[in-house]
Amino acid sequence: MDSAEPKFLLIDEDDQVLGVCLDAEGIFIEPSESDEELTVEILGCLLAPRLRDYLAGSKRYRQRNPLDSLSLRMLDEAAEPLVDFCVGEIIEWRPSRLDPERVDIVALWGFDSPSAGARDVWERWRSARPDQAAQWAVYGPEGRREWLTIVGRSRFRRADGVDRPAGRVYHLDGTHVTDETSFYLAIGEAINGPGGYFGWNLDALDDCMYGRFGARTPFTLIWSDSHVARKALRGVWEETDDAPPLFDLIQTIFAEHDVSVVLR
Question: Please, which residues have CB within 8 angstroms of residue 164's CB and are 6 or more apart in sequence?
Fold first, then answer.
């Protein structure tokens, strides 16, 4: 299927491409208390035969040949996959306003869509993957959380399931670790380089220690400027008087997996 600089792919449950699409509107949503169903308009879709037959078929045909578990795959400017979003039922379609040879599709949208306030973070990733550490540091708390969302949902976040040998030394730059989100961004980059993933909460951090996320334990982690995180993560993890600070819980997880942490 030919395409001119697509921004999205519409794919099925088997990861087969149903449509190569030029753009989409309604990806980013504003917070709302309304119960109204959200929709996304997928623009300029060049259809694969399965989707073309589905849209051209009768209501009975579509019922007998449903399109379940659809995803909208966002591409970066190099046309590489970035993130997949779940797409609900296709509710409308018409000749595209971008190209009459293509189709515009309206589908239900919602639970995993990014917020409008984080649009610049997503556009930053679409324009170019991170090539330097701590490029997330310029953002505030909301932007950093969205950066971590992209890192966690990236199709390549697991370093292809290949671990570096045990015994390696990794360096965590703690300069910008001013909250929990910042820690996961920093440890992900320490292990897997700019934009790297190594957990998004304590349970995920623990899971990463078992392998297939870029590093095999035991290893050594040299944590520079650790005093920043020690101060920022001094709050308790749970709302109980005897719960340890988050900084201490992180050290406990490292110790349980034979990770030697050198605090500097």
Answer: 214, 215, 216
